[in-house]
Amino acid sequence: MAFKHLINFKKFYSLIAMFLLLGSNLVMAQATSSNATATDSGDTSAQSAGMWASVGYYTLLFVIVCVVVAVVGKILKVYDLTLQMQGKKGINWNNVMATGFLIFLVAGIIGVYYSFSEHGSMILGPASSVHGKTLDTMFWITFAITFVVFLATQILLFGFLFKYKGSDKRKAYYYPHNNTIEKIWTVAPAIVLTILVVFGFLTWRKITNTVDAKGEVASLNVDVTGHQFAWELRYPGKDGKLGKKKSKLISGTNKLGINYEDKNSFDDLAADTLMLPVNKSVRLNIIAQDVIHSVYMPNFRVQINAVPGLPTYFKFTPTKTTAQMRSDLDQPDFNYHLYCNKICGGSHYNMQKIVMVVSQAEYQNWLANQKPYLSDQLKKELKLADNALYRQFQLQNSLASNN
Question: Residue-wise over 377-386: b if at least 16 C-beta within 10 A, else e?
Answer without folding.
Answer: ebbeebebee
